[in-house]
Amino acid sequence: MSGSVPLVERVRARLADTGAGTGPAAVAAAVRAETGGVASDLDVLAALRTLRQEFTGAGPLDALLRDPRTTDVLVTAPDAVWTDRGDGLRRAAVTFPDEAAVRRLAQRLALAAGRRLDDASPCVDGWLAEAGVRLHAVLPPVSAAGTAISLRVLQPAHHDLDTLRRSGTLDAHGEVLLRAVVAARLAMLIAGGTGAGKTTLMNALLGTVDPADRVVTVEDAEELRPRHPHVVRLVARPPNIEGAGGVPLRELVRQALRMRPDRLVVGEVRGAEVCDLLAALNTGHEGGACTVHANSVREIPARMRALAGLGGMSPSALDGQLAAAVQVVLQMRRTPAGRVLAEIGVLRRDDTGLHVDTAWSREGGAGPGHAALAELLGERGVRPPC
User: Fold this and answer.
1) Backbone angles phi and psi of 254, in degrees to 5
2) Domain closes at, from 36, 56, 76
3) pLDDT for position 327
């Protein structure tokens, strides 16, 4: 392929100069023109293949993104492309000709997401709606080793709780407990690290919600697509290049409250919007849910205090609001065998602060909080699992 790179560069420049478009006929004509009409069919086909990757989709990454097992595709250098298919990162055979090719792809994907990526704005976070992919990219010199591209693939919401149990994400008792929590309309907080399966579990849980309930979701990126007949999805919008037109997550939480939600769900709390969410869950909106980055259930109170501080809420006020609004926390974890539900906890507040008691864990079964969870379920008219 290296021998065809100069030809590709010349064809690219010709197409840019003539404005002839990037269709197959225009590209083929440009190839013939650059070679004086003596290029072989193999040369034309090679140039067409390379340029098609440059101008459409995600270029050489398309095949990786189409793999139904792929959750992430990461580019750290022209010859360093990594994929995650649920079992950790593996180096892919895909490569780019050079750093310039990686940069062009990052800028084209940013443009497709309606964002700007150049020396004046070297970082981008966007959403490729048609592909169902979340994009993040950073240009040098901010990314010291070269253009870095991170693509997170939104998997279709075809995983229900039965499927997650069969795949090993849940065991039988964990599934029964989750169904009981949803039926009892207990508010949930799903925690875990990046790629731990928080969104997958949330989609599955929302799929078990009573079909008569109206579910309103609020997200930074449109990742929640539960199999439920009545879902309204609100997605935040960043400001445009002029700094206008942005609709932040916090504003969408407020708007969602006026939409008569039976279940209010925030895809991920990252900042001050946690204050509005907790206020909503404390005013009669039962059965709400959100996700948050945390490495264990015991870290959740500290994590939520830090986020609430961004909204001006004191730690003591957060403890009171969180204890009253959320009853159950779920911890997802990545393991060598895949993503698993590791723990179910119950929030408890006493004179020493806010705590999470383990009601069930994958490794140890019933824990100190099991009785408290059974009591919460019984109060809501749901028979606690044995």
Assistant:
1) -65, -40
2) 56
3) 93
